[in-house]
Amino acid sequence: DADLDAAVQAAVVGRYQNSGQVCAAAKRLIIEKGVVEAFTEKFVEATRKLVVGNPLSSDTYIGPMARYDLRDELDQQVRDTLEEGATLLLGGGKAEGAGNFYEPTILANVTDRMTSFKQELFGPVASIITAQDCAHAVALANDSDFGLTATIYTANVELAQQLTGELETGGVFINGYSASDPRVAFGGVKKSGFGRELSHFGVREFCNVQTVWLDRN
User: Fold this and answer.
1) I need a labelling partner for 137 at 20 to 30 A (CA). Which of 158, 193, 203, 217 fits?
2) pTM of the model
3) DSSP E strands, the chain
C-alpha cells in the first residue's frame, strides 16, 4: 500500500548514494509480491538514468569505489549470485575505461540461499527479494547476520510502528531511507555492532566514569 514512486526514489538514493558504500544503505529491497513487478519496473527505469563518471562533475551520481580489491570482491559476489540463479536486470560488471568504477547493478529473483542475500554488498548493487506478505517480509529482513537499520514504506503508519518492534535492527525508518541525525542514537545489533553513537547515548561514550567503592564492613 506504499506510494511506489516515493519508495522507488528512496530506494535509488538509499542504495546508490556514495556509490553504494554506506553502512546503512538499502542493500536488500524486500518487496511484497503484489507490487514487486511494478516496483521493479520503476526502480530499473530510475537506476538506468544514473550517471557514472567523475565525482567532481555535477552530472555524476555514481563515482568510483574506494579500492580496486573492493570492486573485485563486489564483482565476485555478483557473479556468485547470478550463478546461484538470480536474474540480472541492469549492469553487472566493472565499468569500461580507467578508474575504479562499477556499473549500477540490479539483481532480481534473489532468494535467501544466495550470496547477495546473505552477505553485505558494499557497492552500487541492489538485490530485489520477493515477500509473500508482510509477515514474510519481516522474516526475510530478520534472516541476516547484520542488523543496522531497516526502512518500511507503507501508507499504514500504525502497522509500520507495530513492525518496528519485530525488526531486529538498531534503527527503523518509516517512509524515509536510513540516515543519521545527531539528535537520535545510531548503531546496530548482531554483527552490526553494539553500543550507540550520537544523541545522549553517544555522548556518554566519551565520559570517564569513576567508580568509588566503600566497604562498610
Assistant:
1) 193
2) 0.94
3) 28-32, 87-90, 105-108, 125-131, 146-147, 149-152, 171-174, 189-190
Judge whether 177 and 11 are in contact, CB under 8 Å.
yes
- Are 187 and 197 a contacting pair, CB within 8 Å? yes
Alpha-carbon span 67 to 211, nearest angstrom: 45
In one letter, which amino acid is 87? T
Please count the residues of the chain: 217
Determine whether 27 is exposed, middle or buried from the number of CB atoms within 10 Å of its CB (0-12, 13-18, 19+).
buried
CB count in 10 Å sphere of residue 133? 11
Instruction: Find all residues with CB under 8 Å of 29, minimum gap 6, and list them.
Output: 11, 15, 39, 43, 126, 127, 128, 129
Specify whether the CB–CB gap between 167 and 28 falls below 8 A. no
pLDDT (mean) for 158-173: 97
Per-residue model confidence (pLDDT) at position 207: 93
**Full DSSP string of 141-159:** HHSSSEESEEEE--S-HHH
Residue type, 127: S
Tens digits of residue pLDDT in 104-136: 999 999 999 999 999 999 999 999 999 999 999
Measured distance CA(120)–CA(7) in Å, rounded: 21
User: Are the C-beta atoms of residues 148 and 128 closer than 8 Å to each other?
Assistant: no
